[in-house]
């Protein structure tokens, strides 16, 4: 299933409770591809799905220094942290 559907649902649940997404910070862990050229488009897409201003979304990348499955370029990992204000 398209992961956008899950993100849209999460944003809807926040708004249904009168909450607001303060910010979201996403870190991609990979050797390749280089994320820099795509980071702005990713931020814009996430902001659109979550219905927030793009300034509330951060996307960056790091490598695992050639360690583990990401270092062997067998996959990509990600971490995300969101701050949500609920009255």
Provide the fold topology.
Elements: H1 3-16, E1 20-29, H2 36-50, E2 57-62, H3 68-71, E3 77-85
Parallel strand pairs: 1-2
Antiparallel strand pairs: 1-3
Percent of sequence in beta strands: 25-35%
Overall structural class, as computed from helix and strand content, comes to: alpha+beta
Proportion in helices:
25-40%
Spatial order of the strands in the main sheet?
2-1-3
Arithmetic mean pLDDT = 96
Briefly note the CATH topology name. 60s Ribosomal Protein L30, Chain: A
Give a written overview of the molecule.
The protein is of the alpha+beta class. It has one domain (3-85): 2-C-methyl-D-erythritol 2,4-cyclodiphosphate synthase (60s Ribosomal Protein L30, Chain: A). The chain is built from three helices and three strands, in the order αβαβαβ. Helix 2 (36-50) links the parallel strand 1 and strand 2 (57-62).
List keywords for this structure.
single chain, 3 helices, elongated, alpha+beta, 87 residues, 60s Ribosomal Protein L30, Chain: A
Summarize the structure.
The protein is an alpha+beta fold and 87 residues long. It has helices spanning 3-16, 36-50, 68-71; strands spanning 20-29, 57-62, 77-85. 38% of the residues lie in helices and 29% in strands.
């Amino acid at each position: 299933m398209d992961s956008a559907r899950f993100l849209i649902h999460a944003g809807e649940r926040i708004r249904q409770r009168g909450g607001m997404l303060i910010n979201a910070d996403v870190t991609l862990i990979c050797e390749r591809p280089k994320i820099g050229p795509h980071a702005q488009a990713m931020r814009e897409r996430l902001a659109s799905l979550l219905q927030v201003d793009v300034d509330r979304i951060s996307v960056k990348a790091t490598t695992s220094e050639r360690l583990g499955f990401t270092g062997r370029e067998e996959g990509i990992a990600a971490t995300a942290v969101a701050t949500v204000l609920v009255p």
